[in-house]
């Protein structure tokens, strides 16, 4: 192949060369295809890797096709590098904020280049798990190149024909540009390029205050950039619980993010090394000049150049069309992950791939609608959610009771100085059945799993109230919520019955 490490992943350093050696080895020789495969998977992101490894582990003959970088968005330009940068930002922030604990305050500006190099080093190490050699060693035929359907049951890659009984489309998605005047003429960043930075932007403009925009605006502000965040709605994280978004918004402001909310970015223009952002607010036009611009709105599914029409597979601007069993309009072909899912999360891609294995290879009847889907935004504090929001539940006809516990009532949160935030649990009125939960806390993503398990298994707050939780931990907030619900069972009638009992018992 004519590709070089520089064209695949920037910057060209030892860490990225090691990454490329794993996920797109330049000397890779595609194998000779088998006469027919039980499963051919196009796309080696999370959905594709799990589909291929799971099927091969059960004994199926599997081919895996990837045109760019194995590991997909999550490893290369998403979850892994972003959390590496967020971890650096949290460490820098903690070094500057020790006064409440009587500790020394760091005064040096920090080394952004070193923080980015650490991220690249860790990412390269993780990439071994997603690499071509590992999947070859699992017994999978790995093909590096463009995969394209040539018929309803045949895919071509690098001139080789792959016949299949079943196939999986797991090609993921990519950043797309919003319709902003002048954007195509500006050297802007997306999540696919921001992690290639080696020097800290002095003035950093970010368009979009969804999860990516909010996470990175706070992280780069903590790392020393002067961040301006542009958002059309009146608060950050517009799809989250408004109370949760408000806590995060206050934290972002405290970290120095200039929140330009309720604005419409009308135009951008390149001025030498600078970028001018023209935005409208309250009928007036304003201008902000930045050194780098990150566009964090818009995603598009990777459906082009796959030959989907030839295979009888329907798709639209949202991606490949699938039924509840993740089957496309070609009954031999399934699709999962970002190319076919409303939920653009790595853990959902993993869960859907497991459904595909059941349904494609074993005549299973697993349904994607039965998945209980949690998610987390890794701001400080984090926002984690699972199940229904309160308004969603009411719109579906539920009467709702909500239990709320602030982290200011949790001893461990107070001791660690992490007492901003809360836990909300929404219940079917008059019962302990959990409909959904939102948690805002320093480690919300690590703690929401208990409530995911409860909803998935039909465990109510009554069972949680009877479960011992270690003290002192922040996860004790869930037990506190359960105890708070249990106290609502002590109605005046029940209390009178207890009074009668204790008079008799005395």
Question: How do the strands and helices of this protein lay out in sequence?
Answer:
Layout: H1 5-8, H2 14-23, E1 37-42, H3 46-57, E2 62-66, H4 72-77, H5 79-96, H6 112-126, H7 132-137, E3 141-144, E4 147-151, E5 154-157, E6 160-169, E7 173-175, E8 203-207, H8 211-223, E9 226-231, H9 242-254, E10 258-261, E11 264-271, E12 274-281, E13 284-290, E14 292-295, E15 299-301, E16 315-316, E17 319-320, E18 333-335, H10 346-361, E19 374-377, E20 382-387, H11 390-395, E21 400-406, H12 411-416, E22 422-428, E23 434-441, H13 444-447, H14 449-457, H15 461-465, H16 476-487, H17 492-505
Parallel strand pairs: 1-2, 1-6, 2-3, 6-18, 8-9, 8-14, 9-10
Antiparallel strand pairs: 4-5, 5-6, 7-15, 11-12, 12-13, 16-17, 19-20, 20-23, 21-22, 22-23
Helix pairs in contact: 2-6, 3-10, 5-6, 5-8
Helix content: 25-40%
CATH homologous superfamily of the largest domain, by name? FAD/NAD(P)-binding domain
Report the mean per-residue pLDDT as an integer. Answer: 96
Major pleated sheet: 7 strands, mixed
* Total number of domains: 3
Beta-strand fraction estimate: 15-25%
Structural class: alpha/beta
CATH architecture assignment name of the largest domain? 3-Layer(bba) Sandwich
Q: Which word captures the global form? A: globular
CATH topology of the largest domain: FAD/NAD(P)-binding domain
- Highest CATH level, the class of the largest domain: Alpha Beta
What are the low-pLDDT stretches, counting only 5+ consecutive residues below 50? 1-6
Give a count of the beta strands, DSSP E runs of length 2 or more: 23
Tally of separate helices:
17
Oligomer: single chain
Radius of gyration: 25 Å
Terminus-to-terminus distance? 89 Å
